Structure formats: structure tokens, C-alpha cells
């Protein structure tokens, strides 16, 4: 089975639309500078917000914005009761202090699940703010296609705070047995081949081929990379080699990336509903 993300996203969008009709959700998108990847993500997100009925306030700052101006803007967004969710593009220019900025957003408005408070909620399995959208997108995808993780051996490759680490905790809360791998993991192939579910979030384009996988597995590719040679988006696994081997697999594009945006918008609608 090919696990298409757009079908999952559609189901989430329907829930968001119902919530958005009840309230008037407002998302602030904070962008410093004009990075092409930020601009392209922003365009996609704004389209989705328009479709769902979520208002967007674009907060755009110059790359040379002072620390004082930047944090005072975040203060005003945190305090503005008309704004329900804040998405801040990262990484920010280094002088703005990425760690401080990540934790500066009120957890009630942290719809991207980036603050330590939101992450603590994921790690303790108690609802504080919202989970990181990418990790949640993986869980929603498995749930949508009735792939139960209970008692399954799940291997996650990649331990970032946006994907692998929170996902390992979410899987654990759903009673999976989780192995979290990274660049210092020995014999990665032997570990991934024995898993029932493998999630790959390494940021290394098409770096895992069929020799990492085995029959009967479910493979989730979180990666989004632009392949200059093929002139298309590719995942972190080599799809054409892996797809014939395994039972279930997410494509790239039209996989996890399609769900992530929908989750973010859903979080904004939930935040508006809390008021
Ligand atoms: P990071 O670079 O922050 O983290 C990558 C992780 O993978 C690190 O933990 C690193 O290990 C590990 N890793 C890298 N190479 C290897 C390797 N050869 N073997 C084992 N582990 C390895 O990346 P992100 O988590 O931010 O992103 C991962 C991918 O997901 C990217 O392709 C990105 O584009 C995509 N992405 C997709 C999203 C979506 O919505 N679908 C959203 C966000 C990201 P170590 O810790 O040891 O360095």
C-alpha cells in the first residue's frame, strides 16, 4: 500500500473547517529575511489557511532587525488576544539567539510545538500546548491507514527535536517498542532490517536503499530534499528501490509533508477553540 498523505490531510482539514466555522482562528507567521525555502513554505501554508478559513497575519522583519525590536514584536504577538497561533521560521539569524526565540512563544500559541514546554507535554504524555507537527503527522498517517503501533518494533532514524526525538516519545506512549538511531549508531542496516515500522528523518537525500529494509515492513519517509539532477523532490530513502521490497511506504512528495501543514492549521483552529 502506498500511504498517500493528501488523503490524511483531507480528513484533518475537514475537522479544521468545522472548528474554523465556530471561531475566527488567526495565525501569525513570523519571518526574518526572505529565504526561498521560508517563502515557499509560507505560500503553501497561506493557501491552506485560506481554504480552511484561518486568517493569516504576516509578520515580516528585516534580516538586520535589532534583538530588542524582534523580542518586543514576539511580546506583542504573545499578548495579542486576537492571535491564536504563532509560527516562527527557523533557523533565525544567529545573533537573535535561536534557543531563546524557540522558547519565547507562549505555549498556548505554540502551534508548531517548538518550545520546551510543548515538548515536555509530549515527553510526559500530558497535554501542554501542541506536539511538533512533523512528528504528529507520522502518527496521524499510521492511524489513518489503520497501522497499529502497539507492541511493534519501531526504528526511527534521526533524533532532531522537530521529528525523531518527539516521535520516539509519541510512539512509546502508544506502546511501541522504539529504537532511536543517529549518526553514531553501529550497524544501522541490521537494526532497520529487523524492525516492523521504520521512520527515516535524516535529511540525507535518498541515502537509504533496499539493503536497509526487508519484506513486510511499513516505511515512513519524513525527508524532503530537492534533487537537482532529477529536478524533483525526493525523500531520505531511495523510493524506487525500497517500494518493491516493503509492504507499506509513504511517497515523497505527497507523503508526510502534505500532512504537516494540515496539522499546523488544525492546531491553530484548536487554539482558537480554547478561547
Ligand atoms: P536534522 O538535520 O535536524 O536531523 C537529522 C538527524 O538525522 C540527526 O539526528 C542525525 O544524527 C541523523 N542522521 C543524519 N545522517 C544520518 C545517517 N547517515 N545515519 C543515521 N542518522 C543520521 O534534520 P530534521 O529532523 O530537521 O529533518 C530531517 C528530514 O526531514 C529532512 O529531509 C527535512 O527536510 C525533513 N523534514 C520534513 C518535514 C515534513 O513536514 N515532512 C518537516 C521537517 C523536516 P545526529 O543527531 O547524530 O547528527
Low-confidence stretches: none
Structural class: alpha/beta
In round numbers, the mean pLDDT is 96
- Our Rg estimate from Cα atoms comes to 19 Å
Characterize the main sheet: 5 strands, parallel
Number of helices: 10
Strand content: 15-25%
Strand order of the largest sheet: 5-4-6-7-10
Q: What is CATH's topology name of the largest domain? A: Rossmann fold
Please trace the helix and strand order, writing H or E for each element: HEHEHEHHHEHEHEEEEHEH
CATH C-level of the largest domain: Alpha Beta
Describe the structure.
- Keywords: Amino-acid biosynthesis, Histidine biosynthesis, Hydrolase, Methionine biosynthesis, Multifunctional enzyme, NADP, One-carbon metabolism, Oxidoreductase, Purine biosynthesis.
- Belongs to the tetrahydrofolate dehydrogenase/cyclohydrolase family.
- Homodimer.
- The strands form three sheets. The protein has a five-stranded parallel beta sheet with strand order 5-4-6-7-10, with helices on both faces. It has a three-stranded parallel beta sheet with strand order 2-1-3, with helices on both faces.
- Helix 1 packs parallel to helix 10 and helix 6 (133-144) packs across helix 7 (164-173).
- The mean pLDDT is 96.
- It has helices spanning 5-22, 36-52, 67-79, 98-102, 116-124, 133-144, 164-173, 188-194, 239-242, 256-274, and strands at 26-32, 55-61, 85-88, 153-157, 177-181, 197-200, 218-221, 225-227, 232-234, 248-249.
- 41% of the residues lie in helices and 16% in strands.
- The protein contains ten helices and ten strands.
- A hairpin with a 4-residue loop joins strand 8 (225-227) and strand 9 (232-234).
- It has two domains: 23-114, Leucine Dehydrogenase, chain A, domain 1 (Rossmann fold), CATH 3.40.50.10860; 133-258, NAD(P)-binding Rossmann-like Domain (Rossmann fold, 3-Layer(aba) Sandwich).
- The chain is an alpha/beta fold.
- Bound molecules: NADPH dihydro-nicotinamide-adenine-dinucleotide phosphate.
- NADPH dihydro-nicotinamide-adenine-dinucleotide phosphate (NDP) binds at residues 134, 157-160, 162-164, 181-185, 188, 201-204, 207, 222-225, 236, 256-257, 260.
- NADPH dihydro-nicotinamide-adenine-dinucleotide phosphate binds next to helix 10.
Amino acid at each position: 500500500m502506498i500511504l498517500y498523505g493528501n488523503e490524511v490531510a483531507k480528513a484533518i482539514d475537514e475537522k479544521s473547517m468545522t472548528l474554523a466555522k465556530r471561531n475566527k482562528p488567526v495565525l501569525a507567521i513570523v519571518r526574518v529575511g526572505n529565504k526561498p525555502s521560508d517563502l515557499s513554505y509560507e505560500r503553501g501554508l497561506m493557501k491552506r489557511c485560506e481554504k480552511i478559513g484561518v486568517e493569516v497575519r504576516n509578520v515580516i522583519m528585516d534580516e538586520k532587525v535589532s534583538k530588542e525590536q524582534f523580542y518586543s514584536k514576539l511580546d506583542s504577538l504573545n499578548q495579542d488576544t486576537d492571535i491564536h497561533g504563532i509560527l516562527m521560521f527557523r533557523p533565525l539569524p544567529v545573533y537573535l539567539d535561536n534557543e531563546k526565540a524557540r522558547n519565547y512563544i507562549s505555549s498556548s500559541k505554540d502551534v508548531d510545538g517548538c518550545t520546551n514546554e510543548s515538548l515536555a507535554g509530549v515527553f510526559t504524555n500530558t497535554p501542554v500546548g501542541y506536539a511538533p507537527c512533523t512528528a504528529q503527522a507520522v502518527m496521524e498517517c499510521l492511524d489513518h491507514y489503520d497501522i497499529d503501533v502497539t507492541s511493534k518494533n519501531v526504528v526511527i532514524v534521526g533524533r532532531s527535536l522537530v521529528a525523531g526525538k518527539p516521535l520516539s516519545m509519541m510512539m512509546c506512549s502508544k506502546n511501541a517498542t522504539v529504537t532511536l538511531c543517529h549518526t553514531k549508531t553501529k550497524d544501522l542496516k541490521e537494526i532497520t532490517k529487523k524492525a516492523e515500522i521504520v521512520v527515516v528523518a535524516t535529511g540525507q537525500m535518498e541515502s537509504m536503499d533496499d539493503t536497509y529494509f526487508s519484506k513486510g515492513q511499513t516505511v515512513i519517509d519524513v525527508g524532503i530534499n530537492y534533487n537537482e539532477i532529477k529536478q524533483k523532490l525526493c525523500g531520505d530513502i531511495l523510493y524506487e528501490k525500497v517500494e518493491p521490497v516493503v509492504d507499506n511506504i509513504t511517497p515523497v512528495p505527497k507523503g508526510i509533508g502534505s500532512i504537516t501543514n494540515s496539522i499546523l492549521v488544525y492546531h491553530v483552529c484548536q487554539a482558537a477553540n480554547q478561547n
